[in-house]
Amino acid sequence: MWMRNTMLLFCSLILVFMAACSSGSGGGANTNKSGNSGNKAVNAPAASNATENGENESTGDEEVSGTPEMEFDMGGRTIKWVSWYDESIKEDNPDNIKKKENIDALMEKHNFKMEYVVVDYGEYQEKVTASLVAGEPIGDIIRVARPWMIPTLVNQGLFSPVDEYTKNEKVFIQQYTNEYSQYEGRGYGFRAGINGASSGIFYNRTLLNQLSLKPVQEYVNEDNWNWDTFVQVAKDANKDTNNDGKLDTWGLATASILVQAMASNEANLVALDKQNLEDPKTLEVLNFLSRLATEAVARPTEGGDWTEPGQFFRQGNTLLYAGNDYEMENLKKDMPDHDIGFLPFPKGPSATQYHSHNTIPNYLTIPSVVEHPEQLVYIYEKINDIDSIYDYPKQATLETLFSNEDDINNAKMAGESIKVIDNNSGYPSMPYYEFSGELLEGVSVSTVVEKYKVPFQAAVDEIWKK
Questions:
Q1: What would the pLDDT profile of 288-301 be if each residue is shown by its tens digit?
Q2: Cα separations (Å) of 13 from 6, 298, 323, 360?
Q3: Adjacent-strand bridge partners of 323
Q4: Which helix or strand (DSSP H or E) is residue 319 part of?
Q5: Fold match between 25-196+361-401 and 199-358+405-464?
Q6: What letters, b where the CB count within 10 A reaches 16 and e where it falls short, cover 413-426?
Q7: Cα-Cα-Cα-Cα dihedral of 14, 16, 19, 23, to 10°?
Q8: CA 273 to CA 287: how far, in whole Å?
Q9: pLDDT (tens digit, 9 = 90+) per residue, 325-340?
């Protein structure tokens, strides 16, 4: 039952999370898109980083931001931009209005048109992969999820590396090129806008006050929000308030938080082409999950489906629920009589900062058969190289979701670093749910690691040695 419910949860959230992670600009706008390959002369970009304020730190003189202006003519060609959702620029906020003006000017200057192609997500991977292998990609710029391309498709030389064109930190999120899409020292993906969803801990302030517990925000303020304080808060909320011999309030909606804990300790289940279960950071995570199980920290399941933890939280008698920032809208609707707060996921013992998580990062790529990738990345850069009206990425979204300043700051802080955690989304044969299920059933960490390290490695080999 546990494994079936967890599988349903994972599969059902993939689409929601990927769509959320694909959302765009600092003001909650769509990530914007740009043109492609060229036909005529091109000036090779000598990309350079601008200072944070766009001025020369020594003289105060204005510097050129990002890649210098390039001159090329695309001959009137149509650039196809492929995604599982419509990535055309909507003029729905001041930033996007500027970006729409930019792309219109670029199309006129460089003589191209832009076509946004939407392919249903259910058939997206198959269609994209087949087209790439056949040497006839369905687009010039294609949004791709990391597990679909690395290592198999990159090994076949089907994508152009782009890291030499993405140096403009004002536009490009460096983690996507230099970490999420890295393979053998090159970066193959690019992205502007936001890192993705902020993952963390929702908590019920109303219940917290009723139980007369210490405000959990104080742990963050003290820089003392870690696994130990997290466990203590959860235990303190496990109470029998009516003295009938049974718990009627609980601290934690579920202990099924392996991915979140991995990210929070800067650990991973896989390191390149090797299983990573015996790594010290990973073992710290597994021992933490084992502690949640053996000390009965979390509310026990009642046999519900994947929505059960959220349902528990919505009952108003469970204090903590691990989730993502975009869930706040529905929580407010479903819990109008409760004050809901948001915290970053607590730091693990090996972490130096708070982290959110992602198992399937996605980004834009350029097929290797498309000519002049530098032109495509250049156009994308120039579309997105604007002076935003917002103070920080995702400001409008977070200020819409949260009304409490602490919650806004926590979500902002949680989203500043997103750790990619490898699991069965990238390694289909990995017995991920069996592995995590045994941990939550109280099987010892040493036993679980010894049992699963070989099948984990086999799942990794299946992908990396194709």
A1: 999 999 999 999 99
A2: 11, 21, 11, 11
A3: 200
A4: strand 318-324
A5: yes
A6: bbbbbbbbbbbbbb
A7: -130
A8: 24
A9: 999 999 999 999 999 9
pLDDT of residue 465: 82
Q: Which of 167, 110, 126, 186 is nearest to 365 (CA)?
A: 186
Residue-wise pLDDT for 232-259, tens only, equals 999 999 999 999 999 999 999 999 999 9
Q: Which residue has the tokens 């097929």?
A: 367
Q: Which CATH class is domain 25-196+361-401?
A: alpha beta
The predicted structure's pLDDT at residue 140: 98
| Residue (of 174, 93, 70) closest to 382 by Cα position | 70
Q: Residue 53 and residue 59: Cα distance in Å, rounded?
A: 13
* CA distances to 117, 154, 226, 348 from 230, in Å: 45, 41, 6, 10
* Numbers of helices and strands, H then E, in the chain: 18, 14
Cα Rg, the chain, nearest whole Å? 23
CB distance 456 to 424 below 8 Å: no
Rounded to the nearest 5 degrees, what angle is found at the Cα of 67, between the Cα atoms of 64 and 73?
120
Domain ranges of the chain: 25-196+361-401, 199-358+405-464
Q: How confident is the model at residue 23 (pLDDT cuts 50, 70, 90)?
A: very low
- Token pair belonging to 94: 């001041």
- Is the sign of the CA dihedral 290, 296, 301, 305 positive or negative? negative
Where is pLDDT greater, at 10 or 202?
202
Fold (CATH) for 199-358+405-464:
D-Maltodextrin-Binding Protein; domain 2 (3.40.190)
Question: What pLDDT, on the 0 to 100 scale, is given for residue 28?
Answer: 38
Mean pLDDT of 39-47: 36
pLDDT digits (tens, 9 = 90+) for 374-392: 999 999 999 999 999 999 8
